[in-house]
Amino acid sequence: MSQAEIPNRILFTDLRHIQCGTLSWATPDGRRFGVSHPPAPQVEMHAQPRHVPHGVRLAAQPARKTEPMAEWRGWGRIVHDQGRYRSWYLMVDGHALQGSGSRSQTESPGTVEVVSVESEDGFAWREGNRCPISVPGQKSFDGLTFFVDPIAPPAERYKLVYCAQPPDAVGNALLAEYMKRPARHRDVRIGERRKPCFFAATSPDGVRWKAVERPLMVHHGDTDNTFYYDASIERYVLYTRMFRQDRRWVGRAESEDFRDWGPVEPILWPRLDDPLDQDIYLNGYTTYPGLPDWRLMFPMFYHRSTERSDVRLYASEDGIVWNQVPGGPVITPGESGAWDSEFIAGGKDLVPLGEGRVAIPYMGTPYPHKYPRWPEVFRAWRMGWAWWPEGRLCAVQADGDGVFWTAPLLPTGRGLRLNFRTPRGGEMRVGLEGVAGRSVDDCDPMHGDDPARKVTWRGQADIGAAEGQEVVLHFQMRCADLFGVEWV
């Protein structure tokens, strides 16, 4: 990794920077033997833990919620682009709401428009532009998403993707090829009566849009879809819904060419120790602002016994292998009678929201998910923000005394700041292992609630390590939450 690629900031959302440690074995007089070929005769050995964490755990932090936005007609994705919040949605015959029973899913649409909206503060929205696109023969629109493509030619920098039924002739030809796939790469819902495809439109500026005639792929992507370009693997990546074992899962596909996609493979599904009525309904993929290697998901879990839902936090280092962050749901329905009291859905992306906050959009309604969808039920949907203090999505948490060590890190600055929280009786210390005068015992004890505490060792703020020297950070904490570290 080049110096430019080394992050100056670390968030503790997964285990990539936390050592799991080991035991070394020594005789009572201090001789250490390795696992292979110890000398004869056998003697009694005693364990000496090294870098083994104890008394700590990862804990996802619950979001706080804003009041709903006054006006909103999109669905689920907001980006912070060119200094303002932006989003796009489809208007079909004058109707923007999508989903089963909505008027935007008409069998013979007359007009299809891409509508842009924007906001300076994320709350007061204005319509920016409407651009008609030519999509002859397409119908039953759903599952819209968009992204800004960093490697596209200028004319195609903005990409909008949606799911729709293709014209019959196109659909029949695509279905014939689709049915040749192995069964594990097919969706049981796709057949003669239903041939959904992903279609796209492109734009140089998010204002002028042109439809891509050929479908990207056959897939039943009727709700939350994420397309983006992953520079670390030089591939386009898709996260989308799958349907297996009568349940919704999350799948992933990738491609070198945005217009030609490989098969969808499962990455998230209900665990066998989960309640048996659950689906993983949406993916809610995002990266942390300014830290593209911190890949996160806010998947929505749907509970069929009540038709309610909650949103949880998942983390991944590579975007392929994912783990649920412990700590329970991070977004839950509101109190009885509230606008989001029954069913909620997390959106994307994670964006700065001012006042030291990061946030994702989320949607809510006072009706259960499959409640009959009269016009009043559709109109009851609202969108607000779910937010966290900056950097505080997840913590290394100690209820009592806890300790852990990081993997070797290459400092990018001469000082160190911590984002942490303790009660008055708690304490946080950090040392640089092997650096003279910078041990955990030399660290000036810290307590309180501080997003950017400068660490000192006996009053000295310099980390004391040689330039270019990797260091292991040793954390000692009591009744504390540690969210992240930053070199300064």
| Number of DSSP-assigned strands | 34
Secondary-structure content class: mainly beta
| Dominant shape | elongated
Number of domains: 2
Low-confidence segments = none
Average predicted confidence as pLDDT: 94
Could you please describe the fold and organization of this structure?
- With 488 residues, the protein is mainly β.
- It folds into two domains: 3-18 and 53-57 and 398-487, Jelly Rolls; 64-389, 5 Propeller (Tachylectin-2, Chain A).
- The protein is 3% helix and 43% strand.
- The chain is built from two helices and 34 strands.
- Strands 1, 5, 30, 31, 32, 33 and 34 form a seven-stranded antiparallel sheet that branches. Strands 6, 26, 27, 28 and 29 form a five-stranded antiparallel sheet that branches. A four-stranded antiparallel sheet has the order 7-8-9-10, with no helix packed on it.
- It starts with 8 loop residues before the first strand and ends with a strand.
